[in-house]
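Schema walk-through. Below, the input block comes first and the output block second. Nothing else is stored per chain. Lengths vary across the set, and this one has 133 residues.
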Amino acid sequence: MRRVQFILSLIVFIAVCAIAGGSVLTFFNAYGEGDRAVLNWTSGLETGLFKYKIERSADNQNFSLIAAINPQGDYTMYEYIDDDLLKNSQRLYYYRIKMIFTDGSAVYSDTNSVTLQFSGIQETWGSIKAMFR
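--- output ---
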C-alpha cells in the first residue's frame, strides 16, 4: 500500500513539475520600505535562463526596464532595491520580472504593486531632480 501511495505521489509531483516547467520563479514579492521598493524572488531551475530584467510602471500598463540581473544558479534568493524613484506625488508603482532565455524567448512574472511613503522634503527634492532629467 505504501508503495502505491509513493508512486501516486511521484506521479502527481511529476505532473505539477511538467505543468509549471516554464516557470523559473518559485516566489516573487515586492513591498515598500519608506521611500524605496524592495523586490525579492527565489528561482527554481534556471536552465536556459539568460537574464532577469526588472521592469517598473506607474500605471500598470507601460513598463520600463530598470535593471538587468544575471542568474546565479538554481534555487537562488535574489533581492533588488529600487531607490531611484522620483520622490513626488507618485506613490504607487508596479513591478514585474521579465525572464529572458538563451533561445530568445521571454516569460513575465506576475505584477506586484508597491506603495511608498515620502516626506515633504523628499517630494520637493524629487520635483527639483525631475526638472533636470
